[in-house]
Amino acid sequence: MNTTAPVIEAKGLNLVFQTADGPVQALKDVDLAINRGEFVSFIGPSGCGKTTFLRCIAALEHPTGGSLTVNGMTPDEARRRRAYGYVFQAAGLYPWRTIAGNVRLPLEIMGFDRAEQEARVERVLDLVDLKGFGKKFPWQLSGGMQQRASIARALAFDADILLMDEPFGALDEIVRDRLNEELLKLWARTGKTIGFVTHSIPEAVYLSTKIVVMSPRPGRITDIIDSPLPKERPLDIRDSRAFIEVAHRVREGLRAGHSYD
Amino acid sequence: MRRLLPILTVLAAIVAVWYAAAVWMNATWVFDQAERNGQVVTWAEVIPQTMAQDRPLLPPPHQVAATLWKGVAGQAVTSKRSLVYHSFITFRGTMMGFGLGILFGVGLAISIVRFRVMEMSVMPWAIISQTVPIVALAPMILAVSFQLGIESREVPKAIISAYLSFFPVLVSMVKGLRSPDAAQLDLLRTYSASDPQTFWKLRLPASLPYFFASLKVAIAAALVGTIVGELPTGAIEGLGARMLIGSQFGEPLIMWASLVAAALLAGVLIVAVGLVERAANRRMGVRA
Question: In chain A, what residues touch B205 (CB-CB under 8 Å)?
Answer without folding.
Answer: 94, 96
